[in-house]
Design a protein that fits this description.
By secondary structure, this protein is mostly helical. The chain has one domain. It has 2 helices and no strands. Helix 1 packs antiparallel against helix 2.
Length: about 60
């Protein structure tokens, strides 16, 4: 889950940066010209990273 979150965050933030230079990742070209979807992708990635860390801490305490 953390790996997927990392990639989502990477693509979300990278897409925000590239969009300011009038460039885009080919896989995210369908997003168009909005910032909300890029921020949502980065936020979803951050959420997955945090949830993955919480899950790992819980499993370490149980052992």
């Amino acid at each position: 889950m953390q790996k997927l979150g990392f990639y989502l965050m990477l693509f979300g933030i990278g897409s925000l940066i590239l969009n300011s230079f009038d460039m885009e990742f080919k896989i995210l070209m369908w997003l168009g010209e909005g910032y909300a979807s890029r921020i949502a992708i980065a936020s979803a990635g951050l959420l997955l990273i945090v949830l993955g860390n919480i899950n790992n801490k819980d499993s370490d305490e149980n052992q």
